[in-house]
From TrEMBL:
CDD domains: PH_SWAP-70 (cd13273). Residues 316-530 form a coiled coil. It holds the Pfam family PH. It comes from Molossus molossus (Pallas' mastiff bat). GO terms for cellular component: cytoplasm; lamellipodium; nucleus; plasma membrane. PANTHER family: SWAP-70 RECOMBINASE, SWITCH-ASSOCIATED PROTEIN 70. This is Switch-associated protein 70. It is found in: Cell membrane; Cell projection, Lamellipodium; Cytoplasm; Nucleus. The keyword Membrane applies. Keywords: Cell membrane, Cell projection, Coiled coil, Cytoplasm, DNA-binding, Membrane, Nucleus, Phosphoprotein. Residues 210-306 form the PH domain.
Length: 585
């Protein structure tokens, strides 16, 4: 019942649209009342004027839209429809309301009756959505049917060219565009009007009237047993036979069901190409014009009975349903593909945004890296400048140390020379004392004093010799320090940080050296004082010894440890410290 309702709604939609003169989607209530009355009449539905007046009462404001008309149409008309009305009459009533307004004024090769049949075929093949259109696949199917009925050859390339020029904004053709397409003869060139009309009628009979096969055959009567030519029409559940093909004088029906069967008969009584149709209560003998027709009819009737057994619809309706299902499936797959494409596009856009974000982060990181590199280069330049400054300072200090070492060496030579002079004077003093000892034996006290002074001088001499050895070792140590400083300069050029650390250590040691220098200086002053006192005493007694003056009063040697006043113990201590540092490096 749902399929019948959908088919009826398509024809009613055309009628409603035709009544909508200003294309506003609404129709006046008076026109809808007339339309409803006519529908009830042709559909053989009891007319309910009370419900009609109640639904379209005069106090309603304005016209009624399609959505406003549908509740009444469904409840009071379509739900009461039975399959006992004349479908052709129903379609013709709807056609009458719409064709004058919409049919093209251009000259067509088909008549109005043919246009009506094309209109009905359109409703059968169109999609179940509004506004109604017929898709290119169904257009191709219909045109192939018409071409086959006209006995022509199908031009696939011509139709493909037509589809290429098809408007991209349209999914299909309206019924009036389809009538114009067929009526202009674009796909039936070389065919006359009568041939096109016969082809439309044949396709109409097959698709709309469910005519599976038709043609003239001889039928044997049941009472007189005579043979009479009849026009047979095979439908899904019945075979009707008429006097002629105009279908005006119907002579009878052969009802078909799953219990019927068809059998071939041998020739007899001068009749050829015989076959038998067995029904529940009757048997029909029929003679075809030739063996080919006989076989075609037997096969067609057998296929019809088989479909009845399976409960399946006629082939053309089943094929239409399969095509619709296939289109729905393809549409669903296309929608799914579009959805996936949108998802992929969205994912791609997200990925692009992520890549853009990453790119921006990389650019920011590159900018920061460039800034850091700039800062690093600036720091490196500053460190190099500082290192160069420190290096120049170290060179200047080394030069000053070399000058101080040279000065210290000169002072040491002078000091050694004075020590040598003192030793020579001491030898002379010993000789003089030996001579005087013989002359002054009586002066025992003086001689004892002289002996004591000699012992003290000997002690001083030993001390001076010790100082001499220490000065020699200091000279050697100074040379080693010079070589070590040269090595340290090379090492300082390779490792600035280590040199700075060593400079801090050397500063500390310099302060210690200053303290040691002060101690040694005090010792030297004490020794000088003692020597002066001793010489004064000797001069008082003997008058032979010349006063030995201390070294030059020039500024003492200054190294990176401070004023130099070295002892053997200090030099050995510093040598052990340097070796320990080298070992740790």
């Amino acid at each position: 019942m749902g399929g019948l309702k959908d088919e009826l709604l398509k024809a009613i939609w055309h009628a409603f649209t035709a009544l909508d003169l200003d294309h506003s989607g609404k129709v006046s209530k008076s026109q809808l009342k007339v339309l409803s009355h006519n529908l009830c009449t042709v559909l053989k539905v009891p007319h309910d004027p009370v419900a009609l007046e109640e639904h379209f009462r005069d106090d309603d404001e304005g016209p009624v839209s399609n959505q406003g008309y549908m509740p009444y149409l469904n409840k009071f008309i379509l739900e009461k429809v039975q399959d006992n009305f004349d479908k052709i009459e129903f379609n013709r009533m709807c056609w009458t309301l719409c064709f004058k307004k919409n049919l093209t004024k251009s000259p067509l090769i088909i008549m109005e009756e043919d246009s009506f049949k094309v209109w009905v075929i359109f409703n059968f093949l169109s999609e179940d959505k509004y506004p109604l259109i017929i898709v290119p696949e169904e257009i191709e199917y219909l045109l192939k049917k018409l071409t086959e009925a006209m006995g022509g050859g199908w031009q696939q390339e011509q139709f493909e060219h037509y589809k290429v020029n098809f408007d991209d904004g349209k999914d299909g053709l309206s019924v009036w565009e389809l009538i114009e397409l067929i009526g202009t003869g674009q796909f039936s060139k070389g065919m006359d009007r009568q041939t096109v009309s016969m082809a439309i009628n044949e396709v109409f009979n097959e698709l709309i009237l469910d005519v599976l096969k038709q043609g003239y055959m001889m039928k044997k009567g049941h009472k007189r047993k005579n043979w009479t030519e009849r026009w047979f029409v095979l439908k899904p559940n019945i075979i009707s036979y008429y006097v002629s093909e105009d279908l005006k004088d119907k002579k009878g029906d052969i009802p078909l069901d799953e219990n019927c069967c068809v059998e071939s008969l041998p020739d007899k009584d001068g009749k050829k190409c015989l076959f038998l149709i067995k029904c529940f209560d009757k048997t029909f003998e029929i003679s075809a014009s030739d063996k080919k027709k006989k076989q075609e009819w037997i096969q067609a009737i057998h296929s019809t009975i088989h479909l009845l057994k399976l409960g399946r619809p006629p082939p053309h309706k089943e094929a239409r349903q399969r095509r619709k299902e296939l289109r729905k499936k393809l549409l669903a797959e296309q929608e799914e593909l579009e959805r996936q494409m949108k998802e992929l596009q969205a994912a791609n856009e997200n990925k692009q945004r992520e890549l853009e974000t990453v790119r921006k982060k990389l650019e920011e990181a590159a900018s920061r890296a460039a800034e850091e590199e700039k800062k690093r280069l600036q720091t490196q330049v500053e460190l190099q400048a500082r290192f160069s400054t420190e290096l120049e300072r170290e060179k200047l200090i080394r030069q000053q140390m070399e000058e101080q070492v040279a000065q210290k060496s000169s002072e040491l030579e002078q000091y050694l020379q004075r020590v040598q002079e003192l030793e020579d004077m001491y030898l002379k003093l010993q000789e003089a004392l030996e001579d005087e000892r013989q002359a002054r034996q009586d002066e025992e006290t003086v001689r004892k004093l002289q002996a004591r002074l000699l012992e003290e001088e000997s002690s001083k001499r030993a001390e001076l010799e010790k100082w001499h050895l220490e000065q020699q070792q200091a000279i050697q140590t100074t040379e080693a320090e010079k070589q070590e400083l040269e090595n340290q300069r090379v090492m300082k050029e390779q490792a600035l940080q280590e040199a700075m650390a060593q400079l801090e250590q050397l500063e500390l040691e310099r302060e210690q050296a200053l303290e040691q220098y002060e101690g040694v200086k005090k010792k030297l002053e004490m020794a000088t004082s003692k020597t002066k006192s001793w010489k004064d005493k000797v001069a008082q007694h003997e008058g032979l010894i010349r006063l030995i003056e201390p070294g030059s009063k020039n500024p003492h040697l200054i190294t990176h440890w401070g004023p130099a006043a070295f002892t053997q113990a200090e030099l050995e201590e510093r040598e052990r410290s340097w070796k320990g540092k080298k070992g740790t490096e």
